[in-house]
UniProtKB/TrEMBL annotation:
Keywords: DNA-binding, Transcription, Transcription regulation. This is MarR family transcriptional regulator. GO terms for molecular function: DNA binding; DNA-binding transcription factor activity. Gene3D superfamilies: Winged helix-like DNA-binding domain superfamily/Winged helix DNA-binding domain. It comes from the Bacteria. InterPro entries: HTH_MarR-typ, Tscrpt_reg_MarR-type_CS, WH-like_DNA-bd_sf, WH_DNA-bd_sf. Residues 6-138 form the HTH marR-type domain. The keyword Cytoplasm does not apply. It comes from Oryzicola mucosus.
Amino acid sequence: MNTEPIEKIGFLLHDAQRLLRKRFDANAAQYGLSSAQWRLMVRVVKEPGIAQARLAELLEIEPISVSRLVDRMAEAGWVERRADDNDRRVRMVFPTARSRGVFTEVKGMAHQIFDEALTGLSLDQRHAFVHGLETIIANLSETDGASLGEAQLKEGTPA
């Protein structure tokens, strides 16, 4: 059995992610956003008032790194921090009008990059590719003791 394609999967996933990030960073530079800032903005726009500590968990980066990232984004006018009304130690992060204003535009630019990356794949191949990635993630993730795939099945969401 030829295992070479399987042996390359880690390198292929890494290279694809690196190239997507590089292309995104080049295109998002016109907005003054890095891919890390975009990931944070997506979370904040979708969940206004999210706690900084929760952002660190979701983005899988250290809390101090999130704090610095939020500092830079606040200085640039993308987000604002507010103290939690119930616990002043907790810092909540909110999108500004600026971030809400360009969110759809940057999201569209990201979709163009994905379309470019998937050029040459049929719609069925694209769906199979996404399903394969979701399966890999489900196989390697845990959510409250259950695999992500099991959690998605319980919620009625296809894995």
